[in-house]
Each structure stands twice: as structure tokens, then as C-alpha cells.
Design a protein that fits this description.
The chain is of the alpha/beta class. It is built from 13 helices and twelve strands.
Length: 394
């Protein structure tokens, strides 16, 4: 049950992987004078920065590590609070928790993203940042979020892990805040099996993130350096093989997104005749990835009836994307004096209980999107899925 990039794996990815294997260099670094060293990680970083129109990009081992090194780059310290939505993948919380930060949850709205109107009353003297999650490929309402951040002097760390290829009012997501984190996991828009990327226009943030991901080193060392490390870091490096596959996928990203938008538009047109629901809000209809088609029913009963009829489930039942389903996160929050249970975020609970995710590009039961279409679905297959949905609604 992968993301759309997997459906389009082909000769490009195969040739790229074989080229690296034949070179003998799988590590990020190598002999700069040896023509066999292909510098795929470095090439990916340059290509992704150019794609995002960002000054700097950093390749990492995962979206989780991208979030962690981004938080470190912002200088966030243990005990600092960061506002996050109550609907997101568990890594949005766990990466912060491992940095000693305190995730402060806030409601979502009908975009299924962070609700800007619920941010300000969550801010305390300990709040240092906001983490808007471009959930399910849908950009957040970044104008309002950035205005709040500016008013209160807060950093903005964009969690763009599910939204590579998305944009907001002409700007690629991940480049609107101070720094942005992306994932190349198998379930994402494009992937290299696993891996991540970071984008920023701030040189200082880039250098700290780089050091955090590479044992404290300054960017793009060659060989083993002694005495040049300026901070403590860990190892979140990407390898050459993953980078080679990611480069091939990046070359397909715009075509993937445009294809998904076309197929979702057909699907939405066909199912719009059914009553009792509305489509989720798109904060930038021209910038959304279209990996999913989310419908929000008028009632919980209708949402359960339709999703069950199609062999799917409502979004509130979709595992580690809903705060109330994350027993380990809830246990941690309780330990630090912030007990949470289902009902702690009533607006979020209500929206998710009435929502159903229909797959378009990301086919993932863990997101509650195990039913629908995929990027290779034909017009007749889309029509059949739409007919089944309309029938279930009636």
C-alpha cells in the first residue's frame, strides 16, 4: 500500500541504483578525485533546493530525522513548547519529544490541518515555535500562521513530510517558514524507500542542521576531519543508493502531482452528485498534492455507514495519525503533566469522526485510505469507484 512514486518506479530508478552499486561508493562521502564517486547525495540536495527555490537543502535518513535536525537548527531547548496539530503522524510528536521539547496540541479545521484560530490561546511564555503540518498533501493556511508567528516572535518549522510537490500561493511548501522537513518514505509522494530532506533559506540554520545530521561537522566535508566540529551531532546521513533513487523520483514529481490532480478532479466530479457530505477545505486549490480525496459527512452515522460499505474506515480510526490513538505519546504527555484523552480536542474529534479518506495517489490503510483509486487508475476504474461510493452514500 504505497505512495504514488512507487507505482511509477521504472528504468530510471533501476539504472540509477545500478550505477551507484557499480561505482563502489555507497557512502555519502568519497574521494573527490575518483571519477567513480558519483556524489549522488550532494546532487540530490542541489536539485531539491533548486526545485523548491530554496538556498539550501539537506538530505537525511528519514522524515523523522529531518524534523529532529530542523528543531535543533532553530536552537530549541528542552522544556520549550511548540504548537502542533492534534491530527498528524506520530513522528511530528516523537521527534520533538526526543529533543526534550513539549508538543502543545491544537485543533484542526476542515482542511484537516492546524486551525489558525486555535493557536494564539495555546501560546505561553515557554512557546518558541509553531509546527504546521501540511497534512495529506494539503498546505496549511500559511498566511494566517505566519502572521501569528510574526506577532509573537515564534519560529515556524513546516512539517512537509506528506506534501513534497505542494505549494502555497506560488511558493513551495517547506520554504515559507524558517525551515521545512520532508519525507521520502514509501508512503509519500515520491520516495527512496526511506529518507528525508530539509529546506531553508537561512545559512546558519542549514549549517546547524547539517552538523546535527553528521556528527557536528560543517557542510560537505571530505574524508575524516579532526578539530573542525563545532557542535554535538548524530548520524542521520543519507547514503548514495537512496539518493540516486530519490533523484530519479524527483524528476517525476511534477508529473506525479499533475496526474493526481487530474484523476482526483474526475473522481470529485463523479461523486459530487451524492449528498450528505462536503469535500475538505483546500487552503490553496492549485497547490494541493491531490494524494487523497477527503470527504466530510454531515453525520458520524453516515460516515461509518459509507466507509464500512466500502471496506474502509473513518479517519478517527486511522491509527497513529490521531492523537487519541497514540498510547505511547499520551503516556509521555501524562508523565509531564499534560494528560490527554479522546475528547481533549472536541473539534478535531468531531471532524475526524465524520471524515473518510479516499485514496488517489497514497493507498494507505494506516491513513484510513485503503480504498479508492491510484495514480495508474483508468477512467473506467475511476468511474467504477465513484459508482460504488455514490451507491454506498444512498
Amino acid at each position: 500500500m504505497p505512495g504514488p512514486g512507487v507505482y511509477w518506479f521504472g528504468k530510471e530508478e533501476l539504472d540509477a541504483a545500478l550505477e551507484v552499486l557499480q561505482s563502489g561508493y555507497l557512502f555519502r562521502y568519497g574521494d573527490e578525485k575518483d571519477p567513480r564517486f558519483l556524489k549522488k547525495v550532494y546532487t540530490l540536495e542541489k536539485a531539491f533546493a533548486e526545485y523548491c527555490n530554496a538556498e539550501y537543502a539537506l538530505a537525511t535518513s528519514s522524515g523523522t530525522s529531518s524534523l529532529l535536525v530542523s528543531a535543533a537548527a532553530l536552537g530549541l531547548k528542552p522544556g520549550d513548547e511548540i504548537i502542533v496539530p492534534a491530527y498528524t503522524f506520530v513522528a511530528s510528536y516523537s521527534s520533538l519529544i526526543f529533543m526534550g521539547l513539549v508538543p502543545v496540541l491544537a485543533e484542526i479545521d476542515e482542511s484537516l490541518c492546524l486551525d489558525p484560530s486555535d493557536i494564539e490561546h495555546r501560546i505561553t511564555e515557554r512557546t518558541k515555535a509553531i509546527l504546521p503540518v501540511h497534512m495529506l498533501g494539503n498546505p496549511c493556511d500559511m498566511d494566517r500562521i505566519m502572521a501569528i508567528a510574526k506577532k509573537h516572535g515564534l519560529y515556524v518549522l513546516e512539517d512537509a513530510c506528506q506534501a513534497a510537490g505542494a505549494s502555497y500561493k506560488g511558493k513551495k511548501i517547506g520554504t515559507i517558514g524558517n525551515i521545512g522537513a520532508f519525507s521520502l518514505n514509501i508512503f509519500k509522494t515520491i520516495n527512496s524507500g526511506d529518507g528525508g530532506l530539509v529546506a531553508t533559506n537561512d545559512k546558519d540554520l542549514y549549517e546547524i542542521a547539517f552538523g546535527m545530521h553528521d556528527q557536528g561537522h560543517k557542510p560537505n566535508r571530505t574524508g575524516v576531519e579532526v578539530g573542525n566540529r563545532v557542535l554535538l551531532g548524530l548520524n542521520f546521513r543519507m547514503n548514495e543508493l537512496s539518493a540516486a533513487v530519490a533523484i530519479a523520483q524527483l524528476g517525476k514529481l511534477d508529473r506525479i502531482v499533475s496526474t493526481l490532480r487530474e484523476k482526483r478532479a474526475i473522481l470529485k466530479n463523479l461523486i459530487s452528485k451524492a449528498g450528505g457530505f462536503r469535500f475538505r477545505t483546500l487552503n490553496d486549490p492549485d497547490g494541493d498534492c491531490a494524494t487523497l480525496c477527503t470527504v466530510i459527512f454531515d453525520t458520524r452515522e453516515q460516515a461509518v455507514k459509507v466507509s464500512k460499505a466500502l471496506g474502509s474506515k473513518t479517519v478517527d480510526q486511522s491509527g497513529w495519525h490521531v492523537y487519541a490513538n497514540m498510547e505511547h505519546v499520551l503516556a509521555h504527555l501524562k508523565k509531564i503533566g499534560q494528560p490527554h484523552t479522546k475528547g481533549s480536542y472536541p473539534k478535531t474529534d468531531d471532524i475526524l469522526s465524520r471524515s473518510m479518506n479516499i485514496s488517489v495517489g497514497v493507498v494507505d490503510g494506516g491513513l484510513g485510505a485503503g480504498w479508492g483509486i491510484n495514480i495508474n487508475s483508468t477512467d473506467s476504474e475511476i468511474e467504477a469507484a465513484a459508482k460504488a461510493f455514490v451507491s454506498a452514500c444512498s
